[in-house]
Specification:
Elements lengths: L18 H21 L3 E2 L1 H4 L1 E7 L6 H9 L7 E4 L5 E6 L7 H18 L4 E8 L1 H29 L2 H25 L2 E2 L1 H31 L5 H11 L1 H21 L5 H19 L1 H8 L27
Parallel strand pairs: 1-6
Antiparallel strand pairs: 2-4, 2-5, 3-4
Helix pairs in contact: 1-6, 5-6, 5-7, 6-7, 6-10, 6-11, 7-8, 7-10, 9-10, 10-11
Length: 322
């Protein structure tokens, strides 16, 4: 029985003929994400802003404005109420209590529970989370620091392993992946919490691995086909690693798609961020990183010759420079 091949041997697709359109698309996505962050901002979870988060499942669909009015009458500040999953599942986020103590948190939770039990018979209170304002501020700083250090370390690693052009290309491509994913959270107003930070760090790892595989093949081909045009050589490198890219991305997309559709609500944001990041990361590996190599005129002279130059492989329509 012959093994299934999603990508045929000797695949010869001119991917970079779309590089100009891809550049325009990338610029529009980045500008749109920055604009959304500036105008709408992120719906930060209690991990970053502090407060209490109470998840409630009602016996029947609930009117959000009515619930907000009843809980706001307790006098502990304006609650933020969001439906998730269905019209019966609600997340109630309360501001940080004035003294921030555990006793106050427990008292506020008990009062909210009393309002719900009195006005909505059959409602079930699930998870109750509480984070102080001081702790939330530290979590936000550490999360941002983790992302920043990861990006810097990646740029340095690729710079030393390849050349500075490759490091810059990977860094800009990763920055686009993160900005577009964060911009999606600003657009949808999904809760941005520590789970999302974990998803972003995972996206960085996956996207970096995908880019290094392609860059490594580019480096090999630069040493091997020293008379080949750079655009043709980049297309060759993408096609040679296409089977690995398709299999890895498709496997992750299927798994994450199942988690988004059928998984628990508590990891919905994480799963959705991962799914979007995998798609954007695969796109940027093929177009953004390689497009930057073209802009910086990377060529065979970027590396010392390791082998004697040979002709392009037979059976493929690749053009070499005279």
């Amino acid at each position: 029985m012959r093994p299934l091949k999603l990508v045929p041997d000797n695949t010869n697709i001119d991917w970079l003929r779309w590089r100009h359109w891809a550049t325009v698309l990338s610029i529009l996505m980045v500008i749109g994400s920055i604009a959304l962050l500036a105008t709408r901002g992120l719906n930060l979870g209690i991990d970053f802003v502090g407060g209490q988060n109470i998840r409630v499942t009602f016996a029947q669909p609930v009117e959000v404005n009515d619930l907000r009015h009843k809980i706001g009458a307790l006098g502990h500040g304006e609650p933020t109420i969001q439906q998730f999953g269905s019209t019966r599942d609600v997340a109630i986020r309360m501001p940080v209590p004035d003294d921030g103590g555990d006793d106050t948190t427990a008292r506020v939770t008990a009062q909210v529970r009393g309002v719900i039990d009195k006005n909505y018979p059959g409602a079930t209170i699930g998870a109750v989370e509480a984070v102080s304002g001081k702790v939330s501020g530290e979590l936000f700083k550490k999360g941002a620091l983790a992302l920043g250090l990861a990006m810097i370390a990646i740029a340095i690693y690729i710079w030393f392993r390849f050349e500075w052009q490759f490091g810059l290309g990977a860094l800009l491509a990763l920055a686009q992946d993160l900005l577009v994913t964060i911009g999606f959270f600003a657009l949808t107003q999904l809760e941005f919490n520590l789970n999302t930070i974990a998803a972003l760090l995972t996206i960085i790892g996956y996207s970096l691995n995908d880019k290094i595989v392609i860059f490594d093949r580019v480096r090999e081909n630069l040493r091997k086909y020293r008379k080949m045009e750079i655009v043709t050589l980049l297309n060759l490198s993408i096609n040679e690693t296409l089977a690995r890219t398709v299999m890895t991305s498709l496997t992750l997309i299927l798994a994450l798609g199942a988690l988004v559709a059928l998984g628990p609500n508590v990891i919905f944001g994480f799963s959705l961020a991962m799914l979007l990041g995998i798609v954007i990361g695969t796109y940027s590996s093929m177009f953004v990183g390689n497009g930057i190599l073209i802009q910086f005129k990377v060529g065979p002279e970027s590396f010392k010759a390791a082998t004697t130059a040979i002709e392009a492989p037979r059976g493929a329509d690749y053009k070499a420079m005279p």
